[in-house]
């Protein structure tokens, strides 16, 4: 590669031009210049392969030189030198597509390293791959364009998507941080070329995508190689003090049209890196398993606290909340997950209170939510929730043990526990030790509904939750929720929810607000 060196300090120009290291990487300094205007004339005449320029110079500075040449020679790689490392300069350099930003004083190895990254990236033609990622990362609305692209090349296939991203700065040379991502492709390319699975790379805002294309490779081989390649990428990054990285791995997807979903999975992987630390390999399959276990624990804790609340057990509530606190720490829950769980507990407490005919004023309901959302410490959030739960438990405990509101609340509790099986009014009345006719009248008076209405609505709500699971079909959700006849379930579901079970599942999968009435 032929290099044009531009600097207003003669000593620096001569030092760079005479560096013997250039020969080691098959490069040479084609020309030198003392300012941007002089360099512009030389660049137009000599057409160098790379521009190495200072920023602050007389007559024409390096930024203006780069802006001018970017219009005339858009493919020319530019490396900036500067004794100033203000962020404004770095932003301008990024906008101009600079490949690196090196601050003075520097050593020869800094310049050689930067030029080597340019060399390695130019060994392969990335243009069609960048175009591929630019299109296929778009949402489903662009599927027609994607299908046309695939039809033209006859290349739809299964894939696994990797995403490599720098960890926090691991060494020195902080000035290079805005450009670290640009060196990823060059650093990892020798490794990717040796992969037994064909792969494409594509740029991302802060890292690099690596697409492992299934083609004729069987699924197990593709998945195994994706994990091994991710490990080798992390090891490769660890060899450089400036390139410590972590790698996320998507699920095996059957079609390239699933690229947006794979990217969503990788974002989730990178969120978990905060818990795992630097130089991590994070597979989305593992995250799914963790989330499933976490959701089960959250559901169990919510139900347990609701039961304690119905009995007014203040001591039990305090102990249960301590268990919840430990659970949150054990599963590594993030801030938003903890806030969401605390809000669920508050809503559940309010719901139990309503079952007993107790209400809280609207200001208090809004105030507690503001406190939870503004808290950044887990102990603070749990303290607020505990106050709400204990206050609610105290009010419930004051009610007469078998008051009508209490009977209705206990009926709903029993329905919530046993809705999946055979359940009748007589069975519930026997458990509550009251006459079933009396219980029927109490339920009708207090709720305006019959026992069967409460049972069906509980089963419908359970079915809605089950429908949101990707692996459960509508008829499976119906039977799991206690319905014996799918036709009856479908008719009742549409009457209550406003859409059919299948439409509800499709709306949720598409990210819409499920339950909107079909037209």
From TrEMBL:
The keyword Secreted does not apply. Residues 2-119 form the Response regulatory domain. Keywords: DNA-binding, Phosphoprotein, Transcription, Transcription regulation. InterPro entries: CheY-like_superfamily, Homeodomain-like_sf, HTH_AraC, Sig_transdc_resp-reg_receiver. The modification 4-aspartylphosphate is found at residue 54. Residues 409-507 form the HTH araC/xylS-type domain. Gene3D superfamilies: 3.40.50.2300, Homeodomain-like. This is Response regulator. It comes from Paenibacillus mendelii.
